[in-house]
Amino acid sequence: xxxxxxxxxxxxxxxxxxHAVNTNKDKAACADLLAITDPxxxxxxxxxxxxxxxxxxxIQSLEYYVVGKDPGLVYQHLFYLSKAERFKVVLALLSRxxxxxxxxxxxxxSENRNNQxxxxxxxxxxxxxxx
Length: 131
Hints:
Layout: H1 11-23, H2 27-36, H3 42-46, H4 52-66, H5 71-81, H6 87-93, H7 96-111, H8 119-128
Helix pairs in contact: 1-2, 2-4, 4-5, 4-7
Pfam families: RPAP3_C
GO cellular component, one term: cytosol
InterPro entries: CiliaryAsmbly_MitoImport, RPAP3-like_C
């Protein structure tokens, strides 16, 4: 059964949706959630709940479902994700394979570039992600 995703109004709602999406490993539903969530709200919606599993689900969802359609949105999500409370901790705990997945997404962003971000923007964001 496909998860129905509606825009979360607060961090609690967002957490509930993320939990359901993550439990089902539903990348399409996660992509739907990210598509309707204002990237600027990510740090607040995630509050201190960012975990490695969820971080990777975001990365994979953006890679499989969003980057081809809207690279600007992907850039925005990556930018604001890096402002989340536990970002540095999660980053430090990523395996080499997981870091490669993040690198892959950045590679796709430079291939699918649009006018919403420059290569310089992308390069400085990659440094934040320690790639």
